[in-house]
Amino acid sequence: MSELSLLALIGVLSISCQWLAWRLKTPAILPLLVCGLIIGPTLGWLNPDQLFDQLLFPLVSLAVAVILFEGSLTLKFDEIRGHGRMVTNLVSVGMVVTWVAIGVATHFLMGWEWELSALFGALVVVTGPTVIQPMIRSIRPINKLANILRWEGIIIDPVGALLAVLVYEFIIASQDVAFLHAMQAFAKTIGIGFFFGWVAAKLLGLALGRGWFPHYLQNVATLTIVLGVFALSNAIQHESGLLTVTVMGMAMANTKNLNLDEILEFKETLSVLLISALFIILAARLDFAQFDALGLPAVVLLAIILFAVRPLAVWLSAIGTELRFKDKVLLSWIAPRGIVAAAVSALFALKMEQSGWDGAESIVPLVFLVIMTTVVLQSLTAKPLARLLGLIEPPARGFLIFGANQMARAVAKSLQEHDIPVRLADTNWENIRMARMDNLPVYFGNPASEHASNNIDLTGIGQLLVMSPYKQLNPLVSVYYQDWFGGHKVHGLNSGESDFRASHQLSEAYKNTLDLFGESVTYSKLASLHFQGAKMKSTPITENFSFEDYQQQYGARAVPMFALDDQKKVHIFSTSRELKPMPGWVIIAMISPEKDGDAKSSNA
Length: 604
What we know:
Elements: H1 3-24, H2 29-42, H3 48-52, H4 56-72, H5 77-81, H6 84-110, H7 114-123, H8 129-139, H9 143-173, H10 179-209, H11 218-236, H12 241-253, H13 261-284, H14 288-317, H15 325-333, H16 339-354, H17 363-389, E1 398-402, H18 406-416, E2 422-426, H19 429-437, E3 442-444, H20 450-455, E4 461-466, H21 473-485, E5 490-492, H22 497-502, H23 508-511, H24 523-531, E6 535-540, H25 547-554, E7 558-564, E8 570-572, E9 586-591, H26 596-603
Parallel strand pairs: 1-2, 1-4, 2-3, 4-5
Antiparallel strand pairs: 6-9, 7-8, 7-9
Keywords: Antiport, Cell membrane, Ion transport, Membrane, Transmembrane, Transmembrane helix, Transport
Protein name: Sodium:proton exchanger
Domain Cation/H+ exchanger transmembrane: 14-386
């Protein structure tokens, strides 16, 4: 194959693997790695060293710099303190215990030097949201454990990356020099990394906050500046660039009043175009003989990581918490490794091989072996284990509501009053702020983004209500969540006759969702009724007050929305299904105020 054909093949396979992971609801890293192994060592189509030659190392370096920067953009220190003692302990005490225990076990089992063993231990402390989230959606553990796993993955992604970078910097600084000189070089690297990272973050934050870049240049300018700072830091102090960009991302994430949504959304494009291709290339560089050379000690090490190190970290982290024995058992089994471990290990191995470190060539196959084993084994067994322990969330009966406007907030509060889980998502900060003041769970941003798929909490939620005025986003969000919840569990408001005709250009999948509350009930109608004083009201149906009596009493003043049956199951009034509430049910509706003429008629 020609070089151009190979590059096109990598691009096509990258998208195909991402699509396959989306369809199968599995971490994308798994099909990407398997694909790389097939076209690389298995079929021999791709030899990255031959294809990229001298450019391989710089390309991997820049890709890892981007991964570390954008991963660290998700680390907000307030969130560490705000998600409970167990999460805080797992990303501090648990991480250190995992690092030390794996490092010691690697040294004695694999016979590696202490430096390589410590680096390997640091590389595999990271789980990451891209592998945890698909697993949580598949397992559906109880809300408490789902939140612990989700936030551990989000927070430990940049924290673990920082640990790996620091360990690597120390190893490089201490190579072939006395201890005092090693400490001086390490201190210089740390100082330059933190200083340049903090200064670059403040300057870039200032530029973004004051609008020095036009909107269409913000993402590209940010990426260019990150790569420039990475190169400049490396030029001033050898190998300090990765630390610099990691610190830069953390500093920007914790800068107040800095809107990073556009930059975080840009990460999705980079993930598809850059990271996907990177993993195929890295996997293609492997040789099955490298896995064979690891031998039995690697199998024993894997067993220790799975059955000893993770449980030890969880049990120590759980001291002082209210977690039960079975909670800790499930948490001990779920810790799949992900993107940061694979990408950073490949870069460090390349650099250390060039520096002549004995055994550095074994780091990548061992890391990849840990990734594949943990992802596959835990994906297959975690759900049966959770079911055996009785830790699976009951069938989801809650609602994700796209739109946090005044009308949607009223609907959400009426559901919440009946203990129905709700979460509102909106791209308008003022709407989100008002929803928070009403004590409603929220997600700020586009719920159909990759950031949402990694961060939004959908525990107990199994249906989508589209109640926003955003005509461009509504179809996207609707179609996106049909894959998550199923087509019959996504419902949207008809936007009006003219808009509905325009929707014929859209997919049938979207048009079939426009059934919420009845064909004549539009967003404009509900918003107008609410503005005119209509209120949400819950009315029980009894033997003495039937649904027919309800219709007769309220007539056109009522817009029935939901019916709760005697089993507390929620039914939606829609064009696709006729409901006949029975005694023992409760109807939730928007009721318009009674007009003077209506009042006189009823009194007569």
